[in-house]
Automatic annotation (TrEMBL), chain A:
EC number(s) on file: 2.7.3.9
Lineage: Bacteria, Pseudomonadati, Pseudomonadota, Alphaproteobacteria, Hyphomicrobiales
Gene Ontology molecular function terms on file: phosphoenolpyruvate-protein phosphotransferase activity
Protein name (Swiss-Prot/TrEMBL): Phosphoenolpyruvate-protein phosphotransferase
Phosphotransferase system enzyme I N-terminal domain sequence ranges: 9-122
ATP-binding among keywords: no
Major localisation: cytoplasm
Subcellular location, record wording: Cytoplasm
Catalytic activity: L-histidyl-[protein] + phosphoenolpyruvate = N(pros)-phospho-L-histidyl-[protein] + pyruvate
Cofactor(s) demanded: Mg(2+)
Domain spans labelled PEP-utilising enzyme C-terminal: 245-531
Automatic annotation (TrEMBL), chain B:
Keywords: Sugar transport, Transport
Source organism (scientific name): Kaistia dalseonensis
Name of protein: Phosphocarrier protein HPr
Record-linked Pfam families: PTS-HPr (PF00381)
Role according to the record: General (non sugar-specific) component of the phosphoenolpyruvate-dependent sugar phosphotransferase system (sugar PTS). This major carbohydrate active-transport system catalyzes the phosphorylation of incoming sugar substrates concomitantly with their translocation across the cell membrane. The phosphoryl group from phosphoenolpyruvate (PEP) is transferred to the phosphoryl carrier protein HPr by enzyme I. Phospho-HPr then transfers it to the PTS EIIA domain.
Transport found in the keyword field: yes
Keyword Lyase found: no
HPr domain residues: 5-94
Taxonomic path: Bacteria, Pseudomonadati, Pseudomonadota, Alphaproteobacteria, Hyphomicrobiales
PANTHER family given in the database record: PHOSPHOCARRIER PROTEIN HPR
Length: 536, 101
């Protein structure tokens, strides 16, 4: 029997949970021991068969659109032509996993290099197939269902894996690497899934149960009776905190000395809103539109975008809704849109740079937004602005879209156009960007670019600190300049949802934050204990 | 009895080209016939196996392509007629949307 093991890493999403351990295995880091060609051929055929069975099960549970995508994947897997090159390599002595990866890799490259955005997006389907079969080959069962309420343990977790897991019965995430700024961590905070990262090597075998305390970045394997008692007490404590936070929810946020602070919410996909009462917030400070662009069916058309934006605006009623134009690139690749192979994608063609490089795709989004503007209080926000000319170019495209729609007799209006302040080149001289209708500070990227420490590299996560005086100074400068120019300033990064950073933000003059929906109560409670002092 | 060869061509009008769902339908239909059936993006080929989704998708045929079919076997006539019909009906996609309301 193994003794209790404890690991401390970094907090990624608050909350505490206990459950059975489910390990996920990193496919890229694994190697099989190669057998004879006949054995390898058998192993590949069996893995393809198992992957096909997974997909057929998934089809049974999917909606019509999902089923059509999966049927395509099944048809590809069943086609002898897909596996033929891999079988050829196996006959020549190559290990099955390497043969399969190589074969699919060529196909994936072929699709990805297509000029046709639809065909290029099919690369993602083939990657899915490659990994599903590899998972079976490596006997890790990527397709295996995660039991409800499980504690997921692994090196790192992809957003698609996170989204495939049923979190309604609880559960938690503990990663040996990972980062609090990753997209998975954002998703975990949005869904209220406790998550700890940067735990270092987590012992492999012999453990059955774990506790994750997300706020402390703590993982306990096979907890002792004392740990379990502490867990029960912590749950009760958390429950008490939850009651205090819930009591604040529908009240306007106010500091201890009576300064009103606007608290808005960040939204990653419209379905999230079904569970949220609009009364808890002052509006939506950030709608990420990447969800529209990650569908397996390719880039979204104008109608699909318009429908999604309209739904969000109708939810908000009279309250302001800030929708950010697609922020692809960096750690958010989109097949058919982003540019592959940049040596440093965070410093490459992402955000507005990509949109302006692909005006035909950008224009579709601007048209959909101008149409949706008829249904609420919409503002459009441009990500990754670095020079004022980018605002002018985007504004010209937006004006063009509005004129076109009018000419076509389609109802539309021109929403105000504001910018993310997330590149130091803007935060240092915000007065040069007075063409913007508003500033929204993206503290995650502003921190990453100011501290020169990537959000997704665990080794430099300690440097990636939004509390660094240089980051605070840039925020203060942006708020101050905005006030002088009469431009509204808010902040939509993770910093705004963190009670440890709220005092310095309020002292810097910030009066509006936009946070993940489950953090609204916590933020309002924390604000009620802060003294804003006499406004400068 | 010698197998006969049948050929026919049809204009691809499907809104987005020969994509995943249409390709699945086309190859599934082709597989219901015994004849060897090939698809070409030109009258002179190159010819690809119309029963292989991998090869049909790899052709990446956009809208406005003229698809050529040729079949050799006992049911070659029926096979070519059925495949041409499927493309002409736009892969039954419009009907499917209306039907599902």
């Amino acid at each position: 029997m193994s003794a209790m093991v404890e690991r401390f890493g970094r907090a990624a999403a608050p909350g505490i949970a206990r459950g059975p351990i489910h390990r996920i295995v990193d496919l890229a880091g694994l190697h099989r021991h190669a057998g004879t060609p006949a054995e390898e051929r058998g192993a590949l055929e069996a893995a393809i068969q198992a992957a096909t069975e997974d997909l057929l099960l998934l089809i049974g549970a999917a909606d019509e659109e999902g089923a059509a995508i999966l049927e395509f994947q099944v048809a590809m897997l069943e086609d002898e032509a897909l596996r033929a090159p891999a079988l050829g390599a196996i006959a020549a002595g190559v290990e099955a996993g390497a043969a399969w990866s190589e074969t699919l890799g060529e196909q994936i490259e072929d699709y990805r290099s297509s000029d046709d955005a639809y065909f290029s997006a099919r690369a993602a389907d083939l990657e899915d197939l490659r990994d599903r079969v590899l998972g079976h080959l490596l006997a890790t069962g990527t397709g295996a269902t995660v039991p409800p309420g499980a504690v997921i343990i692994g090196r790192d977790l992809t957003p698609s894996r996170f989204l495939a897991i049923d979190w309604t019965q609880g559960g938690a995430i503990a990663l040996s690497e990972g980062s609090p700024s990753s997209h998975v961590a954002m998703l975990a905070r949005s869904r209220g899934v406790p998550m700890a990262v940067g735990l270092g090597a987590i012992p492999e075998n012999g453990f059955t149960e774990a506790i994750v305390d997300g706020a402390r970045g703590r993982l306990v394997l096979d907890p002792t009776a004392d740990d379990l008692a502490a867990y029960v007490a912590a749950r009760a404590d958390a429950a008490g905190q939850a009651v205090r936070e819930a009591a604040m929810l529908t009240h306007p946020a106010m500091t201890a000395d009576g300064v009103r602070i606007a608290v808005l919410i960040n939204v990653a996909e419209p379905a999230e809103l079904d569970r949220i009462d609009p009364a808890i917030c002052d509006g939506i400070g950030l709608v990420r539109t990447e969800f529209l662009f990650s569908s397996a069916s390719g880039l979204p058309d104008e109608m699909a975008q318009y429908t999604a934006y309209r739904r969000i605006l109708e939810w908000a009623g009279e309250k302001p809704v800030t929708i950010r134009t697609v922020d692809a690139g960096g750690d958010k690749p989109v097949p058919g849109l982003t540019i592959d192979g940049e040596s440093n994608p965070f410093l490459g063609t992402r955000g507005i740079r990509l949109s302006l490089a692909k005006p035909e795709i950008f224009k579709v989004q601007l048209r959909a937004l101008a149409r949706a503007a008829q249904h609420g209080n919409l503002k459009i926000m441009l990500p990754m602005i670095t020079i004022p000319e980018e605002i002018d170019e985007a504004a010209a495209l937006l004006d063009e879209a509005v004129v076109e729609l009018a000419r076509e007799g389609i109802a539309a209006s021109r929403p105000p156009l504001g910018i993310m302040v997330e590149v130091p080149a803007v935060a240092i001289v915000p007065e040069r960007f007075s063409a913007a209708a508003f500033f929204s500070i993206g503290s995650n990227d502003l921190t990453q670019y100011t501290t020169a420490s990537a959000r997704d590299i665990a080794a430099v996560a300690g440097l990636n600190d939004p509390g660094h005086p240089a980051v605070i100074e840039l925020i203060r400068n942006t708020v101050q300049t905005g006030r002088e120019l009469g431009i509204d300033v808010s902040l939509c990064g993770d910093m705004g949802g963190d009670p440890r950073h709220l005092p310095s933000l309020i002292v810097a003059g910030l009066r509006a934050v936009s946070v993940a929906p489950p953090l609204v109560g916590r933020v309002k409670l924390a604000l009620s204990e802060i003294h804003a002092g006499v406004p400068a | 009895m010698a197998d006969s060869e049948t050929t026919a061509s049809v204009l691809l009008t499907h809104e987005v080209g020969l994509h995943a769902r249409p390709s699945v339908k086309l190859t599934k239909l082709a597989k219901t016939f015994q004849s060897a059936i090939e698809l070409g993006l030109g009258g002179d080929g190159p010819w690809i196996d119309a029963k292989s989704i991998v090869k049909v998708m790899a052709a990446k045929a956009p809208q406005g392509t003229t698809l050529h079919f040729r079949a050799r076997g006992a049911d070659a006539d029926a096979a070519v007629a059925a495949l041409v019909g499927l493309v002409e009906r736009d892969f039954d996609e419009v009907g499917a949307h209306v039907g599902n309301g």
